[in-house]
Amino acid sequence: TKSDQYPYGEERRLFYVAITRAKVKTYILYDRRFPSVFVDEFLHPEKITEESYAKHPNANKKWTRSADNFLLTLYHEGKSIKYIAEKMGRSQTSIVMRLGKLEGKRQ
Q: Which candidate in 23, 93, 103, 105 could, as Cys together with 37 as Cys, close a disulfide (CB 3.0–4.6 Å)?
């Protein structure tokens, strides 16, 4: 499926399974400073189009040391995930996942 081609497709499927298994209600909490791409897609499915895949020119490109440094600089300056993603030409999910990897290495 198209979602299989999307980076982090497995995480997306797990998110939807968790939501659809709810018996009565589902509460989704997240930090507004770091919005979840999955939550946004769930609440606004009409936003997912071919254009949304095309607007990330660096999607699926290998991360370079220079890009990692730029990402960390923006993040430590307090820039939003959305801003960083737009600036770097990558999806918000890609930014969040890369930050997790880079910050995990530093600990």
A: 93
User: For helices 92-106 and 65-76, what crossing angle results, to 10°?
Assistant: 90
97 Cβ contact list (under 8 Å, min separation 6): 7, 8
DSSP conformational letter for 17? H
Dist CA 50 CA 62 (whole Å) = 22
| Spatial contact of 6 and 12, defined as CB atoms under 8 Å apart | yes
Contact 43, 30 (CB under 8 A): no
Instruction: For residues 53 and 29, give the distance between their C-alpha atoms in angstroms, rounded to a whole number.
Output: 26
19-43, pLDDT tens digit by residue?
778 778 878 777 777 767 777 777 7
How does 20-41 read in b/e, with b if 16+ C-beta sit within 10 Å? Answer: eeeeeeeeeeeeeeeebbbeeb
